[in-house]
């Protein structure tokens, strides 16, 4: 097979690209190009640094063209990548009760966003201090295509390239000018999205220049704007804070542990009652307005106020230029500026652990109260973020001949930084609140003052917790309100150089090789507000600064060795080898290699296999993060209503020895944990194996399909023990070292409930074991022409076979760290994930596209397979409410399975047979999108589209965080859009 015919074959396959951003094909072309001596153009394909004329390689690459992006109806890189079949649950603007600071990430294979490498024009984009890239800092209008390498590539690109590589290529051949406008909105009349772009460019024989400016605005959607998210758990009463419910026990009517009229209990103001009035001394006569708190009726429904879709505005400028200095040397420069402002909104701050003086004028109980709680709902919490990214790059590239060989070379420099300023509103100063709840009096002018009449506190206004929402005045808020300001900054400087050539000829062809060097510096910090550092922001997580950095030197080499060619059943057989040595200033060195084999028995069939070593260096945050407060959800084994306490005498003994009362019941469903960095962390290590084939039969023109099996095994995993694990390891397993990490509050000052865990230390560490992913990717693409137009059909499917612990232990077996494995998690929803916890077994995108003269249309179906979740919370709430019919919200409330635990004090696994484990099935979902386009005679493109054409609702997920659907699914509602592009 000649080089020219092979190139033609590859180009024909590459033209079979899918018709929408959710249906792409497995062929790619990288931007850097150089003419070969025989006139055949050579290009570098993502996943390799060697320029070659055959685009079919041993690694599967998914191509998303600018046309594909346009057909998707989406306006951000993150939204486009969220819907590819190989992406897992990833952070974005859509979240349940969370603050993302406007950050959008990609998470290939559900490995974690920091294990997906993001490149722009083949070079790294700046990451945040946690090691993951914010895709919202990459301007969409500057993009010509996106390539997704679905294989590890640490031997080529270094750290982070464990579960895949996203390479974003920018436009460099634009001629003329264009203006584009886009506007879209949900059929509920919210979530409006606008985008306006101006692009101008010129391409000449020796130079090119491009400038693009873009403004994009996304408006918010509130939880209360969708029925499914307007309550904590859809189907349950909105105000259930008892076990199984999700309403907050911290309410705008307060909770106070006190004795009134001879009755001791937790009291709350009756809704609609007056209670205590501002600027009036409250007496015991007001107690008739209070009643004992009922967890089945008096909880607070926080859901309507939260943003489901966070608003954001993005402004970007992009410019790049190329110039041919000589016939064999080209210069390239680029500059990017992106500014993004965004806001997250949550329900008003819950205030707990409040101490109220007996002589506070608003205290009708006439006794000191410890651990009171209150939620001032006059203003929600908001997190305003201002994020600015700069990137400047320059490169020289070219060719030269030496000793009858042609060499390709390039040298490059990239500087990039990202700064984030976060301003928080709706928060309160802990010291001032303590003063405002202390002693107080009414002065001679009838004004409420802090302190006693003999020793007033200047400037202080007493705070009224006993008058409900209407009892809080602006003067009270002005005294206690604070607006913490937090800063985050990360910076990267990168130098690289590469040189490649054909070393010598073998009978099957030339051996090509490239060697390179890279030097990189990364640094960053977080600077929390001084009040936050001091722990003086009431109810908020205390945080200490993070600061650090590192540098590294790397050398690498890659070679392509043709083994056989032009033989019977061996059109070609080719071996690719690569290796990279990385020397880090903070942990030492590592070497990673990969081996790839491409076998073409006949012209239309390519069989490929690869094995690669990979690594991920610990991020700045993982290494140097200060000790920050966290609030993970967990069950206290010492709570008298917990399963371990009731079923295990050893647990009861250990809890008693720790001073916990046998009648203690956990009130706070969240522990107070401290998380932090560890400068002694070592890198994660991975092995990736891929085997597959690409087939384009000659008897069906323009049909191609590919199948690829993969397995990713990651060891030395960087993470931290969960709060629940530490508590169980202490009280259930009896490991003293874990007990040393736990502190309890026996005074009741935390929330009026003596015995609650007040601090639990959970720092980063390397685990011997890690994660494993196994699956199959299938892509089918077919193009054909008729008298009624040109058609394209594309199907892109990702099948996840295994997701769980390395080594694929069965559920109940021990993993490499000696923990009890949960087994294969595919098809099970991860619970309580603010950013999404879907683990679909199958994700697939099917697209039909049509073009005829000036008209075009496409329809796309996105399929997400069913999952199951644990819904024990529904059964628990049903029992507590005395409404047994509610348990049927679960599709299988009587489901049982074996559970596994350690025999107390040992590492022997005990099987607990046929334990209650209610399950709920999340049915499969198909989203349909359609688009129609018209090319006007005056060079204008008009596009009209609808996403979620049939208004498909997400399935009910009762274990989702904060409301009843997992944000991995689309926001409920149809989304219609119109875009117009005028070219000049």
Describe this structure in words.
With 984 residues, the chain is mainly β. It has four domains: 3-220 and 310-344 and 386-422 and 488-621 and 684-716 and 771-868 and 923-983, TonB-dependent receptor, beta-barrel domain (Maltoporin, Chain A, Beta Barrel); 233-307 and 347-378 and 436-481, no CATH class; 636-668 and 721-763, no CATH class; 872-917, no CATH class. The protein is built from 13 helices and 51 strands. The protein has a 22-stranded antiparallel beta barrel. A five-stranded mixed sheet has the order 4-7-8-5-6. Strands 33-34-39-38 form a four-stranded mixed sheet. The chain is globular and about 100 Å long. It starts with a helix and ends with a strand.
Write the layout of secondary structure elements.
Elements lengths: L2 H12 L18 E3 L5 E4 L6 E2 L8 E5 H7 L4 H6 L34 E4 L2 E2 L18 E7 L4 H4 L7 E6 L5 E11 L6 E11 L3 E12 L2 E2 L33 E5 L2 E7 L20 E3 L14 E3 L2 E15 L2 E18 L4 E6 L12 E6 L6 E22 L2 E21 L1 E2 L1 H7 L3 E3 L5 E3 L23 H7 E2 L2 E22 L2 E19 L2 H4 L12 E22 L2 E15 L3 E15 L2 E12 L3 H5 L3 E3 L12 H5 L1 H9 L15 E4 L7 E12 L7 E13 L1 E3 L3 H9 L4 H4 L2 E4 L10 E8 L1 E3 L3 E16 L2 E17 L36 E11 L2 E10 L2 E4 L1 H10 L14 E7 L6 E8 L2 E4 L2 E12 L3 E8 L27 E9 L1
Parallel strand pairs: 5-8, 34-39
Antiparallel strand pairs: 1-2, 2-3, 4-7, 5-6, 7-8, 9-10, 9-51, 10-11, 11-17, 12-16, 13-14, 14-15, 17-18, 18-21, 19-20, 21-22, 22-27, 23-26, 24-25, 27-28, 28-29, 29-30, 30-31, 31-32, 32-35, 33-34, 35-36, 36-41, 37-40, 38-39, 41-42, 42-43, 43-44, 44-49, 45-48, 46-47, 49-50, 50-51
């Amino acid at each position: 097979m000649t080089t020219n015919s092979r190139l033609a074959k590859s180009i024909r396959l590459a033209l079979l690209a899918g018709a929408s951003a959710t249906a792409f094909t497995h062929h790619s072309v990288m931007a850097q190009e150089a003419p070969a001596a025989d006139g055949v153009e050579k290009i570098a394909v993502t996943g390799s640094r060697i320029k070659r004329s055959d685009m079919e390689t041993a690694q599967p690459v998914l191509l998303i063209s600018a046309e594909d992006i346009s057909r998707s109806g989406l306006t951000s890189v993150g939204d486009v990548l969220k819907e590819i079949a190989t992406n897992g649950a990833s952070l974005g603007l859509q979240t349940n009760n969370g603050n993302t600071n406007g950050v959008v990430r990609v998470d290939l294979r559900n490995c974690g966003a920091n294990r997906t490498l993001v490149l722009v024009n083949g070079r790294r984009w700046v990451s945040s201090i946690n090691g993951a890239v914010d895709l919202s800092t990459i301007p969409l209008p500057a993009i010509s295509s996106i390539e997704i390498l679905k294989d590890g590539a640490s031997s080529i690109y270094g750290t982070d390239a464990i579960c895949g590589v996203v390479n974003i290529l920018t436009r460099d051949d634009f001629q003329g000018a264009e203006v584009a406008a886009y506007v879209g909105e949900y059929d509920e009349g919210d979530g409006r999205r606008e985008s306006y772009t101006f692009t101008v460019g010129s391409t000449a024989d020796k130079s090119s220049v491009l400038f693009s400016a873009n403004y994009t605005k996304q408006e918010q959607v509130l939880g209360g704007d969708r029925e499914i998210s307007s309550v904590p758990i859809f189907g349950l009463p909105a105000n259930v804070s008892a076990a199984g419910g999700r309403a907050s026990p911290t309410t705008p009517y307060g909770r106070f542990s006190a004795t009134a009229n001879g009755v001791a209990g937790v009291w709350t103001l009756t809704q609609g009652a007056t209670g205590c009035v501002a600027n009036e001394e409250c007496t015991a006569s007001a107690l008739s307005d209070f009643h004992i708190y009922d967890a089945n009726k008096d909880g607070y429904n926080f859901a309507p106020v939260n943003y489901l879709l966070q608003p954001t505005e993005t402004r970007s400028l992009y410019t790049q230029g190329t110039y041919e200095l000589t016939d064999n040397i080209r210069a390239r420069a680029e500059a990017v500026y992106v500014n993004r402002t965004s806001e997250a909104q949550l329900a008003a701050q819950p205030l707990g652990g409040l101490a109220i003086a007996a002589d506070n004028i608003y205290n009708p109980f006439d006794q000191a109260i410890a651990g009171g709680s209150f939620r001032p709902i006059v203003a929600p919490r908001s997190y305003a973020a201002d994020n600015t990214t700069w990137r400047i790059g320059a490169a020289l590239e070219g060719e030269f001949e030496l000793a009858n060989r042609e060499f390709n070379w390039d040298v490059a420099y990239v500087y990039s930084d990202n700064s984030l300023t976060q301003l928080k509103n709706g928060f309160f100063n802990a010291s001032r609140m303590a003063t405002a709840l202390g002693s107080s009096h009414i002065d001679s002018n009838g004004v409420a003052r802090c302190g006693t009449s003999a020793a007033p506190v200047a400037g202080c206004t007493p705070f009224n917790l006993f008058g409900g929402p209407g009892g809080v005045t602006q003067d009270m808020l002005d005294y206690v309100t604070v607006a913490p300001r937090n800063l985050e900054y990360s910076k990267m400087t990168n130098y690289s150089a590469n040189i490649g050539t054909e070393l010598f000829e073998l009978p099957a062809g030339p051996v090509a090789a490239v060697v390179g060097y890279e030097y990189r510096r990364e640094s960053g910090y977080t600077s929390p507000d001084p009040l936050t550092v001091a722990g003086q922001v009431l109810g908020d997580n205390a945080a200490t600064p993070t600061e650090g950095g590192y540098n590294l030197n790397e050398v690498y080499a890659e070679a392509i060795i043709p083994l056989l060619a032009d033989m019977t059943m061996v059109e070609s057989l080719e071996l690719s080898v690569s290796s990279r040595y990385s020397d880090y200033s903070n942990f030492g060195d590592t070497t990673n290699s990969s081996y790839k084999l491409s076998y073409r028995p006949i012209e239309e069939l390519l069989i490929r296999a690869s094995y690669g070593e990979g690594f991920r260096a610990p991020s700045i945050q993982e290494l140097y993060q200060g000790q920050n407060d966290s609030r993970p959800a967990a069950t206290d084994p010492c709570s008298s209503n917990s399963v371990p306490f009731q079923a295990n005498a050893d647990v009861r003994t250990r809890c008693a020895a720790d001073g916990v009362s046998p009648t203690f019941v956990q009130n706070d469903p969240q522990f107070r944990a401290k998380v932090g960095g560890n400068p002694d962390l070592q890198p994660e290590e991975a092995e990736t194996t891929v085997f597959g084939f690409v087939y384009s039969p000659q008897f069906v023109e323009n049909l191609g399909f590919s199948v690829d099996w993969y397995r990713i095994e990651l060891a030395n995993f960087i993470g931290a023990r969960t709060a629940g694990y530490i508590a169980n390891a202490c009280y259930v397993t009896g490991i003293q070292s874990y007990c040393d990490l736990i502190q309890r509050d026996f005074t009741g000052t935390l929330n009026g409930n003596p015995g609650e865990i007040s601090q639990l230390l959970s720092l980063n560490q390397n685990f011997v074991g890690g994660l494993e992913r196994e699956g199959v990717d299938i892509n089918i693409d077919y193009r054909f022409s008729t008298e009624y137009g040109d058609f394209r059909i594309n199907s892109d499917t990702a099948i996840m076979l295994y997701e769980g612990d390395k080594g694929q232990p069965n559920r109940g077996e021990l993993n490499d760290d000696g923990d009890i494995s949960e087994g294969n998690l595919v098809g099970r929803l991860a619970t309580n994930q603010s950013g999404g916890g879907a683990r679909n077994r199958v994700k697939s995108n099917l697209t039909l596209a049509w073009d005829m003269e000036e008209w075009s249309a496409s329809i796309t179906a996105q399929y997400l397979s069913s999952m199951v979740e644990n819904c024990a919370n529904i059964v628990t709430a049903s029992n507590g409410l005395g409404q047994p019919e509610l348990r049927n919200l679960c599709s299988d409330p009587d489901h049982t399975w074996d559970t596994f635990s350690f025999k107390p004090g040992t590492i022997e696994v005990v099987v607990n047979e046929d334990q209650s484990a209610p399950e709920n099935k999340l049915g499969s979902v198909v989203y349909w999108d359609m688009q129609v386009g018209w090319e006007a005679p005056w060079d204008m493109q008009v596009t009209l589209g609808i996403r979620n054409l049939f208004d498909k609702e997400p399935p009910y997920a009762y274990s989702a965080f904060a409301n009843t659907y997992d944000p991995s699914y689309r926001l409920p509602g149809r989304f219609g859009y119109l875009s117009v592009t005028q070219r000049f």
